[in-house]
Amino acid sequence: LFFKLPSDSFKYLGWCDIEEHDVRGNQLHCPRVREGPSEEELFFRKEEHTLKKRKQVTDTEKWEKRLQENWENCAELNLSFQDLGDLYQVENFKRILRRLIRVEKLWLVDNSLTDLSAIRLPRCRELNANKNHFTSFKQLPKIPQIQHLSLAENNITTLSGISDLRHTPLESLILKRNPCEFQERYRQLVFSNLPNLKILDGIPKLPEDYSPPDVRFFYRICTIL
Fold first, then answer.
1. Residue 213 and residue 79: Cα distance in Å, rounded?
2. Could you say which residues form the signal peptide (predicted)?
3. Using alpha carbons only, how large is the chain's radius of gyration in Å?
4. 165 close to 187: Cβ distance less than 8 angstroms
5. Does the pLDDT at position 98 exceed 60?
6. Which end of the chain is more exposed for a tag (fewer CB within 10 A), N or C?
7. Cα angle, residue 191 at apex, residues 176 and 120 outer, rounded to 5°
8. How far apart are CA 171 and CA 197, in angstroms?
């Protein structure tokens, strides 16, 4: 790159934990969920001098920190704008997502996400994943209870795989500013694949959104006058 990234000014700052506080992860409006790189990774990146020597963390301390995060009991969570620039940040982010077994409303806006197909959100009713890098419906997490799904400003090119949402109670879907929006008979195809859908891109289902009858059907009918 011939220009500096926004995070370049923080390159040599140390990572530290804020200890001795009562704030839990599910009390933050938009928490950062990533951890610092391991000492091994810093060694290979030749940046081990940038962080102070870390103390050895006991199993008890690890468990206390895990309880403090309390992701399993989150019902509403905003994890947008995480700036996931390194692999360890992405992996830690997905580790948090796998723990969201009770989340009902989740925001993942502008995280450069490409594939969450290995993630399952069993109770999620509302998911906002705008401004990511999804290219297919197959890359979405498993969301069997989804009712409102927003995928605006991704890179979903076709409607292939959208039928995976057919057996969900999905009522509202936003696909604005995706290439698939320009597909011929776009609205008719979406509604034909999602029978429960009521609103697409903020517009309720219109009479012209119903798929026309299959013309081939009439060729099989013998009409006697």
1. 44
2. none
3. 23
4. no
5. yes
6. C
7. 70
8. 4
Collapsing DSSP to helix, strand or coil, 124 comes out as coil
Q: pLDDT tens digits, residue range 119-175?
A: 999 999 999 999 999 999 999 999 999 999 999 999 999 999 999 999 999 999 999
Instruction: State residue 86's pLDDT score.
Output: 83
- pLDDT tens figures, 117-127: 999 999 999 99
Q: What's the whole-model pTM score?
A: 0.69
Residue 90 CA to residue 83 CA, distance in Å, equals 9
Q: Are 121 and 127 in contact (CB under 8 A)?
A: yes
The number of helix segments (H) and strand segments (E) in the chain equals 5, 7
Alpha carbons 97 and 100: distance in angstroms, whole number: 5
Number of Cβ within a 10 Å radius of residue 204? 9
Q: How far from 65 is each of 22, 27, 154, 193, CA to CA, in Å?
A: 11, 15, 34, 44
Query: How many Å apart are CA 77 and CA 84, to the nearest integer?
Result: 17
Mean pLDDT of the chain: 81
Residue in 161, 75, 175 with CA at minimum distance from that of residue 115: 161
**Picking from 6-10, 54-58, 93-97, 185-189, which range would have the lowest pLDDT averaged per residue?**
6-10
- Do 205 and 199 meet the contact criterion of CB atoms below 8 Å apart? yes
